[in-house]
């Protein structure tokens, strides 16, 4: 469904953002890190209200991405639920509890 072109990257970003929003993720932002990172092109960062909420957002996004034919490279942090990363290759979703998001400030780091 999604292939590695700018238009499809934008569609994938919109798809992931929409799926995170389905689960009431808060403060969703998208960062284009194509010129700053060799591992990914887009980072999506959002906040979950609890460990369970963070893990549920990750599960929902991963499940829907797989159903849409998006290759999922991995998920890390689900057990702890404080900061979960869903790796979709050119796009990475970071779901964090507020405390972790404030502490690590990924937006400032990658902006």
UniProtKB/TrEMBL annotation:
Taxonomy, superkingdom: Bacteria
Keyword Secreted applies: no
Keywords, comma-separated and alphabetical: Cytoplasm, Repressor, Translation regulation
Biological process, per Gene Ontology: cytosolic ribosome assembly; negative regulation of ribosome biogenesis; negative regulation of translation
Gene3D superfamilies from the UniProt entry: Beta Polymerase, domain 2
Pfam families for the chain: RsfS
GO terms, molecular function: ribosomal large subunit binding
Matching InterPro entries: Iojap/RsfS/C7orf30, NT_sf
Localization annotation: Cytoplasm
GO CC aspect terms: cytoplasm
Function text: Functions as a ribosomal silencing factor. Interacts with ribosomal protein uL14 (rplN), blocking formation of intersubunit bridge B8. Prevents association of the 30S and 50S ribosomal subunits and the formation of functional ribosomes, thus repressing translation.
Assigned protein family: Belongs to the Iojap/RsfS family.
Alphabetized NCBIfam families for the sequence: rsfS_iojap_ybeB (TIGR00090)
PANTHER family: IOJAP SUPERFAMILY ORTHOLOG, MITOCHONDRIAL ASSEMBLY OF RIBOSOMAL LARGE SUBUNIT PROTEIN 1
Known partners and oligomeric status: Interacts with ribosomal protein uL14 (rplN).
This protein's name: Ribosomal silencing factor RsfS
Lineage, top ranks: Bacteria, Pseudomonadati, Pseudomonadota, Gammaproteobacteria, Vibrionales
């Amino acid at each position: 469904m999604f292939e590695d072109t700018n238009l499809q990257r934008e569609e994938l970003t919109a798809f992931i953002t929409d799926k995170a929003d389905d689960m009431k993720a808060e403060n969703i932002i998208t960062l284009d890190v194509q010129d700053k990172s060799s591992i990914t092109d887009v980072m999506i960062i959002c906040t979950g209200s609890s460990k369970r909420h963070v893990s549920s957002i990750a599960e929902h996004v991963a499940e829907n991405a797989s159903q849409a034919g998006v290759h999922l490279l991995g998920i890390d942090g689900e057990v702890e639920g404080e900061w979960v990363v869903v790796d979709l290759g050119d796009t990475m979703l970071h779901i964090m509890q507020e405390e972790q998001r404030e502490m690590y400030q990924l937006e400032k780091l990658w902006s």
